[in-house]
Amino acid sequence: MAAKTIVVYTQPGWGPCHKEVEFLSQKGVEFVEKNVRADKAALKELIDMGYQSTPVTIVDGEAVVGFDQIKIMELIGIET
Asked: What is the dihedral of CA 8, 12, 14, 15, to 10 degrees?
């Protein structure tokens, strides 16, 4: 299976963001985390895609809004 490109837009202190980052880390998934509070370019990317909340996860160009564990696992190819 080819490696997926995974980017997670997060903000500190927001429970769903923390849970998602923790979940992906525990599953051994490689991803890039972009903190929209610390990185103005990341915030602009998020807004330009039409989103105003976090987390937003992009898996090979497909967006998942919120921490939808089932959908993320499906896109990444992780068994439940």
From this structure: 80
70-76: Cβ within 8 A, 24+ apart:
72/20, 72/23, 72/24, 75/4, 76/4, 76/6, 76/29
6-10: strand order across its sheet = 32-35, 6-10, 56-59, 62-65
- 30-46 pLDDT tens trace: 999 999 999 999 999 99
Neighbours of 13 (CB within 10 A): 8
- 31 residue type, one letter: F
pTM for this structure?
0.92
Task: Please name the residue ranges forming H helices in the chain.
Answer: 15-26, 40-48, 69-76
The share of the chain scoring above pLDDT 70, in percent, equals: 95
